[in-house]
Design goal:
This protein is of the alpha/beta class. It has one domain: Vaccinia Virus protein VP39 (Rossmann fold), CATH 3.40.50.150. Helices cover 39% and strands 20% of the residues. A seven-stranded mixed sheet has the order 3-2-1-4-5-7-6, sandwiched between helices. α2 packs antiparallel against α5.
Amino acid sequence: MSEAPKAVQLTAALHAYLVAHGTPPDEIECELIDETHALGNIAIMQIAPEQGAFMTLLARMLGARRAIEIGTFTGYSALCLARGLPNDGELICCDVSEEWTNVGRRYWERAGVAHKIDLRIAPAIETLADLAHEPSFDLAFIDADKTAYIAYFEALLPMIRAGGVILVDNVLWKGAVIDPEADDKNTLAIRKFNDFVAADPRVDCVMLPIADGLTLLRKR
């Protein structure tokens, strides 16, 4: 295997070009991005715009009708996923914060997707347990507490239809996953998760260098 990666290092200008030459955020998405950015450092929890466009496109390509996300924050990822579902589709959003998700609710209404979104305010593991006997999901997105990634994956996998996809965010963790001196609990948890799913025979696994790293897991 060649040691020279083909990936291009993104400058701010090249990133802007990349976003503009995909499906760029519309006015509603841009306003949500800006409102979240104004919150300060915590805004780093919001997914990147090119990731949002990718998730919308993937939902449409899968023909997804039922989706679930673990970790909603201010609702940008939910907006992108919901836009990829048909008008009678359903997205269940799991989060513990009324404050942050209330930001998203306003934009979901404006975008005309609120009727597709079922927001559950509770620890995600509890919500997943409640959903265990419901119809299967076509698509899932994990972007919450990193130390619970394996637990979320294990709870979700039986609920995903064969051929369905689980997306997992922050799998490169700003490069800390390969830093031998990084030994905080989140970095260790992400490394453990990455190793776990890469070796899991139940799924096909690919890690993409989108934003902070996005893993796609297709259920076999």
